[in-house]
Amino acid sequence: MSYYKIVFFSLTAEKIQDTKYFINVFSRTNGKLKLIANGLGKPKSRFTKLQLPFILAKGMIYNSREQSGFILTDIDIINTFEYLRSDFVSLNSLSYFAIFLNYVLAERLKNTAFFDKTLEFIKNNAILNLKTILSYEMLTLDELGYLPKLETCQNCKSAVPDGFYMFNFDTEILCKNCAEIIKKNNVEQTKKKTNYFDGEFIQFYKELQAKKNLKNCCELDIEKLNNILLKKLENYLNNFIINIHKKCYDDYIALKKIIRAYKNGD
Ligand SMILES: [Zn+2]
Description:
Blueprint: E1 3-17, E2 20-27, E3 31-38, E4 56-64, E5 69-79, H1 82-85, H2 88-104, H3 112-124, H4 130-143, E6 163-167, H5 176-185, H6 187-190, E7 194-198, H7 199-211, H8 227-244, H9 246-263
Parallel strand pairs: 3-5
Antiparallel strand pairs: 1-2, 1-4, 2-3, 4-5, 6-7
Helix pairs in contact: 2-4, 2-9, 4-8, 8-9
Bound molecules: zinc ion.
Zinc ion is lined by residues 153, 155-156, 158, 174-175, 177-178.
């Protein structure tokens, strides 16, 4: 039996039976993995902390044929990022990031560079808020290849330098002409709201994209993120997120409600 050492972030935990849990983790060398943690439900289990999102740990695992999965045998907690957990909005954002990554990362697809960027991002942000969430989501989806280049209409291939259209919950970038034709001829699309994204958004988006830097994403470009751009970025990203997994979109909406309630002091 071979044992492997891995460094990982905990993402989500689910109970399988009694004290046996699945822990979804994002590991540095093996991408997303589903680990089996035996005894987690017991009061003094060393795995207890892994029920929290974004615990950075070193772990020992082995591949078990009997239990058909990776068994976690030991862990060493490296960082719990307490400063983020002491702030209510940051803590909820961490939980959301964990759910989000759990949906967008493919099982066992190694992406060490992205792991390191995520670690830098978590380390370098003293607080998390809606702006950091959106920029992190944008850079993540871009890094993982979910986002198209905002250059041409995906229907007729003509350039869209001054703006483009998207149907709500669709991921296609369309020119004005194609958006109108599709709306006229497709009954399903007629019911959907069309969103327009102007040249200012394209420019802002490309600047953000060019940075390719999760670490700084809450500092520089985000300053330019006025409320109109923020709302546009949110609408744009939600189209992709809802297509990756509806539950992820629902969790985002829940997070926004929490942030709003918290701000109003409810
Ligand atoms: Zn077109």
